Every structure is written in structure tokens, then in C-alpha cells.
Amino acid sequence: ATQIDPSELQELFQETSANVFRINSNVTSLERSLRSLGTSNDTQELQDGLHATQQETNKTITTSTKAIKQLSEVVRGSSRTLVLPTQQERLQLDRLKNQLSDAIQRYGAVQKKIAEKSKALLPTGQRSSKQVSSRLSLS
Predict the structure, then answer these.
(1) Which distant-in-sequence residues (6+ apart) come within 8 Å of 57 by Cβ?
(2) Residue 130, SS3?
(3) Which stretches make up the Syntaxin N-terminal domain (predicted)?
(4) What is the pLDDT of residues 53-75, one digit of tens each?
């Protein structure tokens, strides 16, 4: 089990909290970009920005999920022998878990909307050929 001192624990809480904020900020940015899809503002730059933001958000979610697992081991488990976890740390962990879960749900919802709108904007020929190729690859 990992030993961690109280200052490292607080640093991990703060980093994870900052990551949750970053995920929510990215979701807001993606929602803004989503409104521009299919309009005159729909440029390659917008598409590239959407893609980059989604990739960054995926990495941030992965990092945050690992950090939450580590925090859970420390706060819930007996992996910290220096100081017993405080009630405040337990509450902080629960709040952070809920915030991360909410942020991931928001992100999933906006990702789905982006995928649906992007698919709807494809020319009809491309849409049907993609469906055919996906059926072929499954067989």
C-alpha cells in the first residue's frame, strides 16, 4: 500500500479538483463549438479545436479517475499510517467523486450531441457508405 503524507494528499485533492474544473470548462467550450457546427462558422479550425478539446478531456478524465482511485485507497483504506484520514478528507473525497461523475456525464452528453450533429451534417453519400463499411467490418 502507498504511504502518503497529509500535504501530498491535499495536493492530490487540489490537482483532481482543478482537473474537474478543466473538464467542465472543456464541456462548456465544446457546447459553444457545437452551436457553430453546420453554420458559416463551421471551419476546419473549429473541427480541429473540437477534436483537440475532446482528446485533452479524455486524458484529463483518465488522470482524474486514477487520482480518485488513489485518494480512495488512502482515505478509505489503511494505506496511510502517518495520520488517520479525517472526516473532512472523507467528505472532500465524496464531494470530488460526485463532481467528477457529474463532469463525466456532462462530457458524455455533449460528445453524443457532437457525434449526432456531425453525422447529420455529412453528405448523404458519405453517411450511407460509412454505414456499409461499418457493417462489413463487423462480419
Answers:
(1) 22, 23, 26, 27, 30, 107
(2) helix
(3) 1-119
(4) 999 999 999 999 999 999 988 88
Tens digits of residue pLDDT in 75-114: 876 555 555 667 888 899 999 999 999 999 999 999 999 9
Report the distance separating Cα 59 and Cα 82, nearest Å.
32
- Summary mean pLDDT of the chain: 84
Residues 101-135 as b/e (b if ≥16 CB within 10 A, e otherwise) read eebbebbeebbeebeeeeeeeeeeeeeeeeeeeee
Q: What is the pTM of this model?
A: 0.80
Tell me the C-alpha to C-alpha distance, in Å, between residue 129 and each of 20, 114, 135, 138. Answer: 38, 20, 10, 14
Question: Helix, strand, or coil here: 86?
Answer: coil
Domains and CATH numbers, the chain: 6-138 (1.20.58.70)
Determine if residue 26 is left, alpha or beta; phi over 0 gives left, psi from -120 to 50 gives alpha, anything else beta: alpha
For 110, the 3-state DSSP assignment is helix
Cell triple for 48: 480541429
